[in-house]
Amino acid sequence: MNGVHRRWNPLSKRWVLVSPHRSQRPWQGQTEAPAQHPAIDYDPACYLCPGNLRANGDRNPNYATTFSFENDFAALLPDPQPHPPPASAILRAEPEAGICRVLCYGPHHSVTMSRMTVAQIESVIQLWRREYTETAKIQWIRSIQIFENRGEMMGASNPHPHGQLWATESIPGEVVIETESQNEHWQATRHSLLADCLAEEEAAGERIVCANEHFVALVPFWAVWPFETMVLPRRHYGSVIEQTPQEDAALAAILSELTVRYDSLFDTAFPYSFGLHQSPVNSGPQDGWHFHMHFYPPLLRGSTVRKFLVGYEMLAQPQRDITPEAAALRLREAGAIR
Ligand SMILES: [Zn+2]
Ligand SMILES: [Zn+2]
Q1: Strand partners, 162
Q2: Annotation says 214 is catalytic
Q3: Whole-angstrom Cα distance, residue 23 to residue 300?
């Protein structure tokens, strides 16, 4: 489709407006400083580097691979409270308990995912599995969100390569919608919604960025952010707990390739938020859930012009200029070698 059109996102049940003719509009608005890769291997002032002192007085061990700990400035506290009936049916509030953890990818202050070896990324995936498994043992936890904000543009407070885990007693909004859409598709067809999407994407081919035996990275048909991608396992399973060692290695390989392509695209330490979307826990059967990852990068043109989700996007629906097909082509053409 070449003209202005809108596309349906069956996973989040939202439309996105696509205006391909608009990608050449002149830009006189805000520009950003190009993001630089951190230059030093160890920063004595970094609270994540090995051996350093943290805000709560603990000293980090001299870790050699991954390292995780309870966030010293947690947004959630692990003290579930009773949920009394709400005082108002309209202005509702309820207690929320949860856990926030910090997941360091490695001891080196400058070795971000795009600069890690595939084996180092595999150890991060194994950390995700250990953290998800351990957190799911807490019976009142129902949702576990693992994510990373990379770069100042995404609000990262420290350049040391790390992700976070936030786990909550309720299931947050985005996960509620994706649970619904996947379970509805499963009940209607006995197929995974994302496996069916993947079959169509592979037949079309034009939005695939890279693929291997077990995983595919693609710009979704319904992408909102200019260079948004999804990473999908070919096999249908709900979380990294069910992933085989071969799938761990394949996920590490595709994450390495995708993040190197991102950095090469505008020759910058490409900013993004990424996250794992996994089945809720302690919440009954989740047959429709198909594990996947979303990458949401804000850059639009070069390393200095970002996409803003403002006015029309806030009030009506998201809109994009460059088509998902053009974005995928740019990412396929970007270098995949460090
Ligand atoms: Zn550091
Ligand atoms: Zn998702």
Answers
A1: 104
A2: no
A3: 9
